[in-house]
Amino acid sequence: MVRTQTESGTAPVVPSGGSRQGPTMDSTAAKSRPSANSLQHTTQPPPQPRKKRPEDFKFGKILGEGSFSTVVLARELATSREYATRANSFVGTAQYVSPELLTEKSACKSSDLWALGCIIYQLVAGLPPFRAGNEYLIFQKIIKLEYDFPEKFFPKARDLVEKLLVLDATKRLGCEEMGGYGPLKAHPFFESITWENLHHQTPPKLTAYLPAMSEDDEDCYGNYDNLLSQFGCMQVSSSSSHSLSALDTGLPQRAGSNIEQYIHDLDTNSFELDLQFSEDEKKLLLEKQASGNPWHQFVENNLILKMGPVDKRKGLFARRRQLLLTEGPHLYYVDPVNKVLKGEIPWSQELRPEAKNFKTFFVHTPNRTYYLMDPSGNAHKWCKKIQEVWRHRYQSHPDAAVQ
Questions:
Q1: Do both 350 and 383 map to the same domain?
Q2: How far apart are the first and last CA of the chain?
Q3: Best label site of 43, 225, 365, 376, fewest CB within 10 Å?
Q4: Residues 350, 271 share a domain
Q5: What's the structural domain count of the chain?
Q6: CATH of residue 309
Q7: pLDDT tens for residues 328-377?
Q8: For residue 340, what is the enclosing H or E element?
C-alpha cells in the first residue's frame, strides 16, 4: 500500500482530486498510478540482503509540494530466498489489512493488491471501503467482504476495485496467478496512463474535492426529526410573537425587554436570531439558551445565532450534523446521534459562504471548502446569516457583542 508523508510531517486523510463538478476518472487514475507502478517494482526480489525497512519513492507533486509516498509492503523482504515465501508481519492501518492476514495470520505479495483496491476506492469516494466503530468491527467487515459503492462511483473504477478486493488472494488482478501486473496496467481504468515514461510525467494538480450536485439531491441520511425528538430538542412556535414555549423558563426580564422578538422560527429543529440585541438582552438570551437548548453544551457558552440540521459531505458520502453558528464567531457541527462535537469550521476574514442551489452551499476557508446541504432547502438563509455575522465581525461593528 502507499502512505503519504509531507515535509511538515503531516499526512492528508485522503488525497482528493477533482473540481467543483466532482473528480474526473483520469485524475483519479493518475493519482493511483504511482501505487500500481511501484508495487510491480517492489515485488522484485532484492539483489542482496538488506535491513528490513520500507522503501521511499518520491512522486514530486503527486500529493503536493515536497510530499513523499512510502510504499509499505505487506511482507518483510530480507533475502531472495525469503522473498518467495510468505511473510510474518504487516505494516498499515486497519482499513487496509488484507483478509488473509486476519484469517491465516500471514500476508503475501497479493496483499498489496488488496491495499491498492482500498486506495483507489478512497481516492474516488473520499472514505475507505471498510469502515466501522472500531478495529474489530472493521476486521469483521474485511473478512466478510462487506462494503458497498456510493452513487456516482466511476463504473471503470468500480470494476477495478471489485477485481482487487477479492477474498482469494490468487484471484486478484495483478497477482502472478492472474498474469502479473500486465493485465492490471491494461485495465480500462488506466487507459489514459502511459506507463513507459511515467517518471517523466507531470501529475495533475490537487484541487479541492467538491462532488457534482443536482437540484434533486434527496435527503437519504435518516429521519432527523425522530432523532431530535428523542434528544429533547426545543420546540419553536410559529406565533407572531415568536415565543419559545419549550424555552419559557420564567427568567426575569428587564422592563420593556422582549428577547423573543429576536428569535425567528425556521422549523421545529432550527432557528436564527436577529443581531440587533443589546448587551443586556444578549445576557438574557444566553441564560435562556443555557436553560433550555440541548445544543448549548457544545458551543462553549457562546450565544447561538443560527442552528439547524445539515448534511456534511465528504467525498461521495454524507453525514447528518447539527450546524451551530454562534458569536465569536464560530461554526460548530455536532453528531446528533452520538451527541458529540465533531468539529468546527475555522473562521477567518477569508471565510466565504456560497449558495449553489436551494439545498447546497459551500463554506470556503483558506485550506478547505466545506460542502453542506440543508434538507429544508434554505441554503440561501445559511449564507445570508453567515455573511451578516461576517460583516458584523469584520466591517460594521468589530467590537460588538457578536465577537
A1: yes
A2: 46
A3: 225
A4: yes
A5: 3
A6: 2.30.29.30
A7: 999 999 999 999 999 999 999 999 999 988 899 999 999 889 999 999 88
A8: strand 340-345
Q: Is 250 among the domain residues?
A: no
Q: Are residues 268 and 350 in the same domain?
A: yes
Q: Element (H or E) spanning 227, and its range?
A: helix 224-231
| Average confidence (pLDDT) over 16-36 | 50
Q: Is the pLDDT of residue 401 over 80?
A: no
For the full predicted model, state whether its pTM sits above 0.70: no
Which residue do the cell numbers 500500481 mark?
36
Q: Both 164 and 280 in a single domain? A: no
Q: C-alpha dihedral over 329, 347, 4, 52, to 10 degrees?
A: -50
- Buried b or exposed e, range 246-256, using 16+ CB within 10 angstroms: ebeeeeeeeee
What is 376-394 written as a DSSP string? TS-HHHHHHHHHHHHHIII
- H/E stretch holding 29 reads helix 25-42
- pLDDT category at 159 given cuts 50, 70, 90 is very high
Per the structure, the complete domain to which residue 71 belongs is given by: 55-87
Helices and strands (H and E) in the chain: how many: 10, 12
CB 294 within 8 A of CB 232: yes
Residue 141 lies in a domain: yes
CATH of the domain at 68: 3.30.200.20
Handedness of CA 47, 48, 53, 56 (dihedral sign): negative
Task: Give the Cα separation of 369 and 16 in Å (integer).
Answer: 12
Percent of the chain with pLDDT over 70: 59
Q: How many residues does the chain have?
A: 403
Mapping DSSP to helix (H, G, I), strand (E, B) and coil, where does residue 128 land?
coil
With b for 16 or more beta-carbon neighbours within 10 A and e for fewer, the 315-352 pattern comes to bbebbbbbbbbbbbbbbbbbbbeeeebeebbebeeebe
Residue 370 lies in a domain: yes
pLDDT at residue 78 greater than cutoff 90: no
pLDDT band for position 112 (cuts 50, 70, 90): very high
9 falls within a domain: no
The pLDDT-based confidence of 19 (bands split at 50, 70, 90) is very low
Strands (E), 254-339: 263-267, 270-273, 304-314, 317-326, 330-335
Place of cell 504511482: 34
